[in-house]
Design goal:
The chain is 25% helix and 35% strand. It has 191 residues and is α+β, with helices and mostly antiparallel strands. It has one domain (10-188): Cyclic Phosphodiesterase, Chain: A.
Length: 191
């Protein structure tokens, strides 16, 4: 008889959330993409930019994750503005996403500081090169590029910009067949 107790885990990640104005523009863009590409658009409250995805973490280690975030906060990473300037499609995982042409130094500093502190604290995470993107439509099949449309996707008339002044540790879960995110903690950026 196996008497081992299964460890309780939660699925977590660090992210930044757009302000209300950017969130509204991003959901409008998601609706345009959904019309062109089909698929399932993100729910407005779920639109975010992931900094570090950790996956399943023991509930017992959540306090340690918050301590890591406190150290990063105390390191003085500066606030920055993030500008969404382009839309792309990843065929291999069937998502349409928004991105930027020039990653702000503050975003790179924050993602790198979190990765370094998490690694030093013994947390496992995907250590691939950081590619900031905002998933807007999942399970999609976007059209192939045409001569008229360079990418086959809607283009932005102007960038969607939001001021980034904090980051969040988020728990991901399912309820009624839909994914949802619950903040565990929030940390301000300097400046």
């Amino acid at each position: 008889m196996n008497t081992a107790v299964k460890e309780e885990t939660v699925r977590v990640f660090f992210a930044i959330w757009p302000d209300a104005a950017a969130q509204k523009q991003l959901i409008e863009l998601a609706e345009r993409l959904e019309a062109v590409c089909d698929g399932r658009k993100a729910r407005v409250e779920n639109i975010h930019l992931t900094l570090v995805f950790l996956g399943e973490v023991s509930v017992d280690r959540l306090d340690a994750l918050c301590q890591v975030a406190n150290k990063v906060r105390d390191g003085g990473v500066q606030a920055f503005d993030f500008a969404v300037e382009e839309v792309h499609y990843w065929k291999h995982n069937r998502i349409a996403y928004a991105g930027t042409t020039k990653v702000p130094q503050g975003l790179l500093d924050l993602a790198n500081a979190l990765q370094s502190a998490l690694f030093a604290a013994g947390f496992a995470f995907d250590r691939q090169a950081y590619v900031p993107h905002i998933t807007l439509v999942r399970k999609t099949r976007c059209p192939a590029p045409s001569i008229e449309l360079r990418t086959g996707l809607p283009e932005l008339a102007q960038p969607i910009v939001w001021p980034v002044r904090e980051w969040v540790l988020v728990k991901s879960g399912q309820a009624n067949g839909r994914s949802g995110y619950t903040p565990i903690g929030r940390w301000p950026l300097a400046g």
